[in-house]
Amino acid sequence: MGKVTGFLEIERHDRKYAPVAERLKNFQEFVVPLSEKELRDQAARCMNCGIPFCHGTGSAAPGTPGCPVNNQIPDWNDLIYNGNWEEAARNLHSTNNFPEFTGRICPAPCEASCTLNIDDNPVTIKTIECAIVDKAFEQGWIKPEPAAVKTGKKIAVVGAGPAGLACAQQLARAGHDVHVYEKHAKAGGLLRYGIPDFKMEKDIIDRRIGQMEGEGITFHYGVHVGGADGLDAKTLLKDHDAVALTGGAEAPRDLPIPGRDLTGIHYAMDFLPQQNRRVGNEPVNATEILATGKHVVVIGGGDTGSDCIGTSLRQGAASVTQLEIMAAPPERENKALTWPNWPLKMRTSSSQAEGAVREFAVLTQKFEGENGAVKTLHCVRVDGQFKPIPGTEFALSADLVLLAMGFVHPVHEGLLKSLGVDLDPRGNVKANLTDYQTSLPKVFAAGDMRRGQSLVVWAIREGRLCAQAVDKFLMGKTELPR
């Protein structure tokens, strides 16, 4: 460990945000990094526990405490405390292909599992992780790592989100000829077209793609496998020794209530990608959805809803209200019951803190409009069983309604139906957890397509494990880590 008494002597100190008035003027990242001395001090707080729950257990079960990719957190905390940044970067990348992604947008289950979190004072793991990888890029330590020996096997990875990118990089380093097929104009999936730039600027993705191209990975952009005008899925299967399906869970949850057909009601993932394309100088190619000057209501209290809030405020919305059907969670968790698992408690995102009104335990019963456009939401308070409470009805003015209630499963039309892969009861691609194989020979699945909507860190884990399974399937053995 770093400093034996560090956690007793040094208080937790994390990154700050730029002032709200300043950061609402643009779509740039607004987190203020810690200095190198501050990072060393924070790393010194790591206790190197007898059972470091921050590592994660290695299980894929829901609610598993700690880091899903099993980052060796005490190890690189010790290295940072001793000033060995390059070795810390090597250690970090041994378990996580893209710590620059997780260091920005992961909710940090590792910190919830930190022993110091028993006292609400966990090590600033996420901040240290982000600083390590950013310094590694600045110093030129991150370079392409092409395989010394090629296998002659050709693999298709369908989807260039974090699961597909992790899978592709691992397979390329094992010596395979990897081809990534992406329907959009650039790689990244929801990292590029869903996560707003103020949470992660897209040159962060581009610099990693440059490394992957240097490792021999071929990216095919604008290719919609299984789409009406895209690449035939059966042809893809025939031309490759293995296929990994790593697309997202893109079918959104709808709200089929009276007035749903009014204009001004949109899915979050019709709204967010437009702004990302504007920032990235890509054409929107659709009727523009803008919050400028409008009263915006976001239905859904999760991360996607929060992203809609931050984007709407930066576009100049007149007001933003967020509705959540769940009751307000407690301000603090009961550590004796929850630690080291991820706790249910009140959390306020940076976007929510920028000026949104949050309403809990609210059900929207119908939309009402004028001249075919939405103008009013009719809502009611609900009890713990989500049943309306008589006498609590109220109305909200709205010019723009954004549905951010999550995603139900991958899109079935096109790729999945043309391949004919089996689906699980939730509508995801059915694939074994041990070998990631679907019902079709040589077809594998990983990420949100297999497990449903989840976090970026779970996508990276799935991609890595899928790559290990594909390599073993093709070669009979594998040296890729599981």
From TrEMBL:
- On the tree of life, the source organism's domain of life is Bacteria
The pathway that the record names for this protein is:
Amino-acid biosynthesis
Q: Which Gene3D superfamilies match?
A: Alpha-helical ferredoxin, FAD/NAD(P)-binding domain, NAD(P)-binding Rossmann-like Domain
What residues does the FAD/NAD(P)-binding domain cover? Answer: 154-463
Protein name in UniProt: Glutamate synthase subunit beta
What are the protein's UniProt keywords? Answer: Amino-acid biosynthesis, Glutamate biosynthesis, Oxidoreductase
Q: Which Pfam families does this chain map to?
A: Fer4_20, Pyr_redox_2
Q: Which residues form the Dihydroprymidine dehydrogenase domain?
A: 23-140
